[in-house]
């Protein structure tokens, strides 16, 4: 079965990422979906029923990956299930049945993708200074009749209609807005100059308590209160994907950075990506030359400063294609050693997040200081050697990885 939403939004753009980044500056515990109202969503992130800070941080990291890295619905669902199990989260709407669970995961995914996408789109439209905006229906198989009635509506970009009717206009709404500089251009883009607003379009329906065609709580333009700031932030997010992923994590408020980075490293979807990355390198396929595995935490910095004398402020764990090739080419050597393959490499984010020990390990062939991380999983002990790459690049870069089998309880 195809993923139409994923197909539309698989490749994020800078304004979308910037709009979502602003929301992660305030993780809001909530008991119901309408605990945040209107434009408060522009600067706050919530998932209805998620009230614990660590749970909310993990959910935010899972959603962030779908937006910042375009990982899609399957990866999000895998992460969501893992997070629910990890925290023992119960009492959330939909948990009682498979259909309910699927609905809830789809709703969280779709709502965040759509609102961030359209907030970024609004920033683009305002920057483009289009004279006219055109409302286009999203093509749903079961359309909302009012949304269908607006399809092709052409209005000046500064018309008050857009303040409350800029989509999405309800859960599951896929409607779009297209800009045009002239009325002729609007017609070419599907606009109908003869279509007009009905009388009372801006009046609350006394029977529903809402504007016609607008879902409860959706009577605002997503990102409307932060469009200028979104454009500023979008200008900093270049050289996709490494730089934009890193910039995203670095620009989070200090109070959110550590929880986000740790949550990010423990997402099953990230481990899947490292496995696929290694497989692509092994097959000789073209890959991104470098990827982040999140910021170092204060605990990492303290441990490394203790053994190396260096404070790695604002450093990231990184993995590149040359390191993968080196790791996969290493022989096992001694009888208690085992070769590292793609499955072992998938453990890298977890090893780096919570090592059992961190030790200095001299210098690399290029003259950079080196540290060694060690972590045990059952009878297997993994060692990862990382190079401290200068203040300009601020990377703790994976150089090699080894594994050995030892009896449980023996020293690592």
From TrEMBL:
Residues 303-401 form the Phage-Barnase-EndoU-ColicinE5/D-RelE like nuclease domain. It holds the Pfam family PBECR3. Residues 59-178 form the Phage head morphogenesis domain. Residues 186-205 are annotated as: Disordered. It comes from the Bacteria. This is Phage minor head protein. It comes from Parasedimentitalea psychrophila. The lineage of its organism: Bacteria, Pseudomonadati, Pseudomonadota, Alphaproteobacteria, Rhodobacterales.
């Amino acid at each position: 079965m195809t993923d139409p939403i994923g197909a539309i939004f698989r490749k994020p753009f800078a304004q979308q990422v910037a709009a979502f980044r602003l929301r992660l500056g305030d993780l809001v515990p909530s008991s119901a979906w309408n605990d945040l109202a209107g434009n408060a969503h522009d600067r706050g992130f919530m998932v209805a029923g998620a009230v614990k800070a660590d749970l909310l941080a993990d959910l935010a990291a899972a959603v962030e990956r779908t937006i910042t890295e375009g990982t899609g619905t399957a990866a999000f669902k895998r992460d969501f299930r893992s997070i629910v199990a990890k925290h023992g989260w119960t009492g959330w709407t939909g948990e009682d049945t498979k259909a309910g669970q699927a609905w809830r995961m789809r709703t969280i995914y779709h709502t965040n993708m759509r609102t961030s996408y359209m907030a970024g789109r609004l920033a683009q439209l305002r920057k483009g200074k289009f004279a006219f905006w055109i409302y286009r229906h999203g093509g749903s198989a079961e359309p909302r009749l009012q949304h269908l009635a607006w399809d092709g509506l052409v209005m000046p970009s500064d018309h008050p209609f857009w303040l409350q009717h800029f989509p999405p206009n309800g859960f599951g709404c896929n409607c779009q807005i297209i800009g045009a500089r002239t009325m002729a251009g609007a017609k070419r883009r599907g606009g109908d100059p003869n279509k007009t607003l009905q009388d009372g379009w801006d009046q609350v329906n006394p029977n529903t308590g809402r504007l016609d065609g607008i879902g409860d709580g959706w009577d605002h333009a997503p990102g409307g209160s932060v469009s200028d700031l979104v454009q500023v932030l979008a200008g900093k997010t270049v050289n996709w994907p490494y730089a934009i992923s890193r910039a995203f994590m670095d620009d989070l408020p200090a109070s959110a950075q550590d929880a986000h980075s740790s949550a990010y490293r423990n997402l099953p979807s990230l481990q899947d990506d490292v496995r696929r990355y290694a497989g692509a390198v092994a097959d000789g396929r073209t890959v991104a030359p470098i990827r982040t595995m999140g910021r170092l935490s204060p605990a990492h910095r303290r441990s490394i400063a203790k053994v190396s004398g260096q404070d790695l402020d604002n450093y990231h764990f990184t993995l590149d294609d040359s390191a993968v090739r080196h790791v996969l080419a290493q022989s096992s050597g001694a009888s208690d050693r085992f070769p590292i393959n793609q499955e072992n490499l998938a453990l890298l984010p977890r090893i780096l997040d919570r090592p059992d020990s961190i030790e200095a390990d001299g210098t690399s062939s290029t003259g950079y200081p080196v540290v060694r991380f060690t972590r045990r999983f059952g009878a297997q002990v993994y060692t990862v050697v990382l190079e401290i790459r200068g203040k300009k690049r601020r990377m703790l870069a994976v150089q090699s990885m080894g594994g050995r089998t030892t009896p449980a309880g023996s020293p690592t």
